[in-house]
Design a protein that fits this description.
The protein is mostly helical. It is built from six helices and no strands. Helix 1 packs parallel to helix 6, helix 3 packs parallel to helix 5 and helix 3 packs antiparallel against helix 6.
Length: 176
């Protein structure tokens, strides 16, 4: 663990351990950037952007659910994502976060991360990173577990850059 309580990715792990190590490091970075903030903090923006830390939590909860539950395991969408008309409101996850309490946002994200971890544990117990998702994408491609994990590392990495900027604007907190 580092000084912020984030798990350090292994220096000598196999491919799966390394990917999961970096994903958990980036998940912990998001949690650190959102820690201790109230509703005003999670709703704060930096002009001209409308992005918020609360929106990041809800968006990444959706990303986790979409890739590990919907695409990987081919489950139906879970609440609250199942009631959304994504064609009508493509930014619902970002915009609706303003209606949620910090506890709801953190709880939704944490629950989704735990379901994702369980899905990956189950997958790796019965195979390797070359396994294909149970649901194909709109373009007909079916990603491997490796692709999904790399994509999630990329998604968190990109958004943690946003989280750094947002958190510093809220209370001056900095750190990688």
């Amino acid at each position: 663990m580092d000084e912020q309580g984030r798990p350090e990715p292994p220096f000598d792990g196999d491919e799966a351990a390394t990917l999961l190590g970096f994903l958990d490091f980036h998940r912990a970075t998001l949690a650190w950037k959102c820690a201790g903030l109230d509703e005003a903090g999670l709703r704060a923006t930096v002009a001209p952007a409308s992005m918020t830390l609360g929106g990041l939590l809800k968006h990444l909860a959706y990303v986790e659910d979409n890739w590990f539950s919907y695409v990987w395991a081919a489950h139906d969408r879970r609440p609250p994502f199942d009631a959304v008309d994504w064609a009508e409101t493509p930014d619902w996850d970002w915009d609706s976060a303003a209606d949620d309490t910090p506890e709801q946002l953190r709880g939704l994200w944490q629950d989704t991360v735990e379901r994702s971890r369980a899905a990956v544990r189950d997958a790796l117990a019965s195979g390797d990173l070359t396994q294909r998702a149970r649901r194909s994408l709109r373009d007909g491609n079916t990603p491997t577990l490796r692709w999904i994990l790399v994509h999630l590392v990329e998604e968190y990495s990109r958004h943690n850059g946003h989280a750094d900027f947002l958190r510093e604007s809220i209370d001056g907190s900095t750190g990688e």
